[in-house]
Amino acid sequence: xxxxxxxxxxxxxxxxxxxxxxxxxxxxxxxxxxxxxxxxxxxxxxxxxxxxxxxxxxxxxxxxxxxxxxxxxxxxxxxxxxxxxxxxxxxxxxxxxxxxxxxxxxxxxxxxxxxxxxxxxxxxxxxxxxxxxxxxxxxxxxxxxxxxxxxxxxxxxxxxxxxxxxxxxxxxxxxxxxxxxxxxxxxxxxxxxxxxxxxxxxxxxxxxxxxxxxxxxxxxxxxxxxxxxxxxxxxxxxxxxxxxxxxxxxxxxxxxxxxxxxxxxxxxxxxxxxxxxxxxxxxxxxxxxxxxxxxxxxxxxxxxxxxxxxxxxxxxxxxxxxxxxxxxxxxxxxxxxxxxxxxxxxxxxxxxxxxxxxxxxxxxxxxxxxxxxxxxxxxxxxxxxxxxxxxxxxxxxxxxxxxxxxxxxxxxxxxxxxxxxxxxxxxxxxxxxxxxxxxxxxxxxxxxxxxxxxxxxxxxxxxxxxxxxxxxxxxxxxxxxxxxxxxxxxxxxxxxxxxxxxxxxxxxxxxxxxxxxxxxxxxxxxxxxxxxxxxxxxxxxxxxxxxxxxxxxxxxxxxxxxxxxxxxxxxxxxxxxxxxxxxxxxxxxxxxxxxxxxxxxxxxxxxxxxxxxxxxxxxxxxxxxxxxxxxxxxxxxxxxxxxxxxxxxxxxxxxxxxxxxxxxxxxxxxxxxxxxxxxxxxxxxxxxxxxxxxxxxxxxxxxxxxxxxxxxxxxxxxxxxxxxxxxxxxxxxxxxxxxxxxxxxxxxxxxxxxxxxxxxxxxxxxxxxxxxxxxxxxxxxxxxxxxxxxxxxxxxxxxxxxxxxxxxxxxxxxxxxxxxxxxxxxxxxxxxxxxxxxxxxxxxxxxxxxxxxxxxxxxxxxxxxxxxxx
Length: 870
Fold this sequence. Notes:
Layout: H1 3-16, E1 20-21, H2 46-49, E2 59-67, E3 69-70, E4 73-74, E5 88-96, H3 102-115, E6 124-129, H4 133-139, E7 148-151, H5 153-156, E8 157-159, E9 164-175, E10 195-208, E11 214-227, H6 228-236, H7 245-258, H8 267-285, H9 294-312, H10 320-331, H11 336-340, H12 342-374, E12 379-380, H13 382-390, H14 396-405, E13 409-410, H15 412-429, H16 443-448, E14 453-454, E15 461-471, E16 474-476, E17 478-480, E18 484-489, E19 491-492, E20 506-510, E21 513-524, E22 527-534, E23 538-540, E24 544-549, H17 551-575, E25 581-586, E26 591-596, H18 603-618, E27 624-629, H19 630-634, E28 639-640, E29 650-655, E30 660-662, E31 677-686, E32 689-696, H20 697-717, H21 725-760, E33 763-765, E34 768-774, H22 782-793, E35 797-804, E36 807-814, H23 816-819, H24 825-832, E37 838-842, E38 846-851, H25 857-869
Parallel strand pairs: 1-2, 6-7, 12-13, 14-19, 28-30, 34-35
Antiparallel strand pairs: 2-5, 3-4, 5-11, 6-9, 8-9, 9-10, 10-11, 15-16, 15-18, 15-24, 17-23, 18-22, 20-21, 20-24, 21-22, 25-26, 26-32, 27-29, 29-30, 31-32, 33-34, 35-36, 36-38, 37-38
Helix pairs in contact: 3-4, 7-8, 7-10, 8-9, 8-10, 8-12, 9-12, 10-12, 13-15, 17-18, 21-22, 24-25
């Protein structure tokens, strides 16, 4: 049976047992910022197990794409050097959410082991938690008790965290025989090589509280995971997961492109590349891009490790994209995202490899110098290692590997100290000057006051009660004219800065006493902080006040926010579904949208995006907002959600027909209100992250008008109409080119004539020929002119001075035969330069000095004569 057969048969079996086949979630969890990559089949059901949401089904089965390269599940450095470690693997699983429990789970597992995996039942063992007599008894129905072993909490007890759902687990193991060790049971097999674990059944039975006490869960659940690669290796009877069908096929492709034959003696590079191409391809297909932060950094690390191992096989050029078609052909039918994203994956892999190879070339030369000076002490200093990484981008792992090849160590402790110092400098540089509060500053206030009610979706002003005032980080009872403060109200129309949208401005007043709000923030749950300055008069705690926002500014912000949603939609339409928001800023004058993409956008793509957005604006689409449950939102893939955002039980949807997003910001009522959308700039802000800055409404109109004015002014200057500007500019450029050529010829003729004149002024100083004169040439021609004279002299010294306003230049040239007699241009210029109040230097054959005393040139030239006489 192939991997594909086992994958499909497993899902089909559990579907027949009433389980819903749930597609694999992406390899990075969009809705769980607590984990870096999806590392288990249960990740996508975590909210269900915690009871925070429900699904339409109580039984599920999946084949989950998993990546383990971070945290406690970090297998990266082991990959390539063991028989079963992988960064990417598939986890087959079946799940019960309060439906069945141990009896059914164990029954299903035994049935699949025998009739789907077709394993020899005499080779199968089971392990249970030491106190789980129930599981032991259930396994006795299928296995002799001699093949059921008990383990402690470390091996056979699962927990989601220090507190929360937990419970015993049971593992299925396969005895691979005496050739894998003499152990007579899994208890004696400390390496786990002979009795290979292939399936883990987790019984979510208890809830653990902060004291460590266990209480039964009201709905006991099942979470199982069987590693597909391990199951296939047991089916095929191979001692290494890399000899299974999919990975062996990828290794064959590596053999083909490298021209090297795979065998156990040279296995690591083949293993690393075959594994890493899967992690990279699936992660990129799911929307992760190599970068210098978070998941992107891990992906870049995986790619660079693959490239380094590729070099061991003689692969000096980008090669990963050449392996991709084989991966798509073996896994693309079951994971269509690979086929859809194949071109983009190949492009990103190629660009990243090229960039890394340039880094290696750039840092390699310096590394050679570092290695040479490190040989005496047998160690690369922390400073050198830090410079290689910080200045030249050479990964520290690469430095360590190359050092090892040269029998050198690296001063890791000092390197890490310099790294920490650099991070601290960065943290200090990014500290904001805005007023900062401890996160619990407002906690006492919120205990005695209800959350501020936000009315700004429907109202631009309202009456409110002034519940609190803060000045200089302290609660006060009143604010007087000229004082800056934070005002806290029971209700407010002011939108607090959040989700990329800036806070509102406006006034909070009582009669003629007006507080000018210049920013609004949300520093604590339930708190809307109105930051501003008091005008004439006084406001006091418990005053009844009137809060009013700047409506014109708010309308402009709303238009830009709705335009941002349309831009996001258009980017996905033109560039692909991999586009993910990486940050945004919306204010009254502009919008800024950051997104994941691997290369700059062309002018044609930008124009298409602009046209799409403006087309939807002209359609004047109604923009609706409504609330639904977060559970319902998760069932609707057309609603965009953003990773890392914390959503409550109820979420707000902004619906512009073709674009639906979870968003708490304020929006205009119809797309036509936006008026006009114009992209101003597209740029890179980090590796794999692009930024678009745009404007809308009257600001876009003003921009267009300014461009028209500029075009008219240029046309007037060139005495041409705007439509014929290109033709006129082409004509002027051709004329300029002809004049430049003519000028160069004239300057060349002038210098030739001057050179001939200078040759007539040469003098004999002792045995040497010397030309020492003040000349009138352009400074940029001075060195070339000196070379020309030396060429004519064949043997001799040239010293030329040029005045340039209040400054001067002095150049000295010496023919090669005189350099061998120790007459050096650099030595001559050093002696003469002080006479023009300057300094300089250069090579032995040509040196130059600049000075601020032009009157000293004759004396400087004479100094050179005197030096030659000596």
